[in-house]
Structure formats: structure tokens, C-alpha cells
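Fill in residues.
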């Protein structure tokens, strides 16, 4: 198992190891009878670092994923004091072990949720050796209220794992994990809707998929909706949702770092069906959607400068996202 975990320094030869309850590192730790050997690689190449964070199924090698994404294998060497292979080009490698049932208080820590996580008992990592390159670079990452640096690791996972998700839930067209939702708090998904209750079927499928099972809120839209356009998604929620019919409240596992539920690790989940509704779903006749003709849109584009807001000048001055673009979208809608 290769993972990305925070470590809090306890002294010159010990740290806390933040193996959360849903992570493979914790499962391996709990499965040992005595102690488990650990190696920590700091400053690997970016793809290998990313692969450590990837939510792969258990027993699938993260270094294999790194090799696939790199287009070549990750070169490994044997560690000095533990029986583990480590990335040969890492800047720094920490070697050591963790004893079963030896815990220490770890935290509080300002995490990617935007809140401080409380102090909790976690395993203790004991250092046995340090190896490093000459003039080694110590890497770090800033986390906190989103968006922060870790947001792009999450977005990479979102894109890379879409084909794998489609293998299990083939009706999914696309999905978006909003950065503001810390990824595990919200999922927007578009589907090829084929029958009544299809959106609810997809919600339950997502709540059964690996780390996506921790998702707190899911919004399902039709295949023609751009899940990355949050204004469009909110329009569909407002236009297509009858809360008495289309909102699902259930319960299930939640992220270790989620402070909102009454009980840690478990709480409520929200599903919103924002798809169009057909006759089989007992609705009134669904009205046609307003769509401006291509000719009118082209006319707006041709005469844009006449409206007194030159698009090119606004773009050059860096004001396009605040003024011209929303107005242009409004006029062309």
C-alpha cells in the first residue's frame, strides 16, 4: 500500500501517523499482530506523489498507476533498515516502524475542509533511518479553506477515474466534485436517464463506490447539462426539482474529517434528482425549454461592440469574468 498521510512530529525520532479510519494504511495497521514496517518518501516525482493520493481499490499497486501515467516504471531501491522498496529518486526517505496498539494524541490540524480537525489518538511512527540526496529539497503542500494546492490533486483524480466509474455505472456521462465542497461533500453527476428512479439508482451506486461512498450530497442532472457549469446546475435544481418527490434523505458513512454529523464517521446524506421528468413519473406534461435561435446568437456576437462593452478590450483589461462574459451569456441565452 502507498498512501499520502500527514505526520506530526513528536520528537527527534517519532511522529504521529494520521491513518484515517477509511484508509488502507489503517486497515494494514490493524491487521498486524506486532509491528508494521513503514517507509516515507518525500519529494518523489509529481506523478508518483499524485498516485499515492489516488483512491485505488485495495490490493491495486499505486506505483503501477504511477508507472502507467508516467509511461515508464517507477525506479525502486531497497531501504536500509526495513524490508521495503522505495522510490530511487526521492529527495528524502524516512524508514521506521509502527507498533500495534501504540497510540498518541495527534492534532489539532488545519485541514483541506477549511476547519481545524480535533486532537485524536493515532499510531506512532518510530524512525530507524533517514536517507537523502545531496542538497535535498523538503517538499510540502498548503491545505486549508478551499481552494488550496491540494485542490488540483482532487481534480486530477476526478478526471482520471471517470472511465473507471463508467465501467461500474455506465449511464454516467460526467461528474464534478466541486472544490468548494472539499470533494467528498458534494458530487454533481449527469446521466443518460432511461427510466423512472434512474437518478436514485445512480445516487445509491455512487454511495457504494470506494471513497465516493463518503459523499454527503449528490445532484443528478440530464446528460445535456454541463456538470462543471454551476450556474447551469443550479438552474436545473430550481427548475426541475419538486422537493417532496425529488429529494432523497438517507444515512451512511461520512469522511473522518467531517465535523458536521452528530456521530463521527456516520450521518445524513442528501440526493437531489434535477433531471427532467416524464409521464411515467406521474408528472404533468413537461414544458419545452426556451432556446434562443442560432441566428440571434450570431447576431449578438456580430454586434457585440455596439452594445458599448468591447469584449476584446474587457478581456485585455482582465475584467471579462466580472462584466462582459456574464452579460454576453445573458444576451445570447
Amino acid at each position: 500500500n502507498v498512501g499520502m498521510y500527514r505526520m506530526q512530529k513528536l520528537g527527534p525520532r517519532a511522529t504521529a501517523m494520521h491513518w484515517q479510519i477509511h484508509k488502507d494504511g489503517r486497515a494494514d495497521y490493524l491487521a498486524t499482530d506486532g509491528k508494521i514496517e513503514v517507509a516515507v518518501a518525500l519529494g518523489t516525482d509529481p506523478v508518483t506523489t499524485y498516485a499515492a493520493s489516488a483512491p485505488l481499490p485495495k490490493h491495486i499497486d499505486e506505483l503501477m498507476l504511477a508507472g502507467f501515467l508516467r509511461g515508464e516504471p517507477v525506479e525502486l531501491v531497497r531501504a536500509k533498515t526495513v524490508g521495503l522498496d522505495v522510490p530511487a529518486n526521492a529527495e528524502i526517505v524516512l524508514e521506521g516502524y509502527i507498533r500495534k496498539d501504540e497510540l498518541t494524541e495527534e492534532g489539532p490540524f488545519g485541514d483541506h475542509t477549511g476547519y481545524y480537525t480535533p486532537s485524536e489518538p493515532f499510531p506512532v511512527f518510530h524512525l530507524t533511518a533517514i536517507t537523502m540526496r545531496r542538497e535535498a529539497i523538503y517538499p510540502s503542500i498548503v491545505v486549508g479553506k478551499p481552494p488550496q494546492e491540494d485542490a488540483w490533486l482532487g481534480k486530477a483524480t476526478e478526471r482520471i477515474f471517470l472511465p473507471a466509474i463508467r465501467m461500474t455505472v455506465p449511464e454516467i456521462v460526467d461528474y464534478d466534485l466541486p472544490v468548494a465542497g472539499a470533494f467528498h461533500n458534494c458530487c454533481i453527476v449527469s446521466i443518460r436517464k432511461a427510466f423512472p428512479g434512474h437518478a436514485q439508482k445512480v445516487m445509491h451506486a455512487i454511495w457504494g463506490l470506494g471513497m465516493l461512498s463518503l459523499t454527503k450530497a449528490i445532484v443528478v442532472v440530464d446528460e445535456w447539462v454541463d456538470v462543471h457549469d454551476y450556474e447551469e446546475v443550479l438552474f436545473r435544481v430550481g427548475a426541475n426539482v419538486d422537493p417532496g418527490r425529488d429529494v432523497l434523505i438517507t444515512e451512511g458513512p461520512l469522511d473522518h474529517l467531517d465535523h458536521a454529523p452528530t456521530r463521527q464517521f456516520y450521518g445524513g446524506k442528501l440526493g437531489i434528482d434535477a433531471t427532467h421528468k416524464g409521464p411515467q413519473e406521474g408528472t404533468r406534461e413537461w414544458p419545452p425549454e426556451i432556446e434562443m435561435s442560432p441566428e440571434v446568437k450570431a447576431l449578438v456576437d456580430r454586434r457585440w461592440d455596439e452594445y458599448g462593452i468591447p469584449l476584446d478590450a474587457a478581456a485585455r483589461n482582465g475584467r471579462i469574468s466580472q462584466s462582459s462574459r456574464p452579460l454576453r451569456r445573458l444576451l445570447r441565452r
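Residues 313 and 319 are 9 Å apart (CA to CA).
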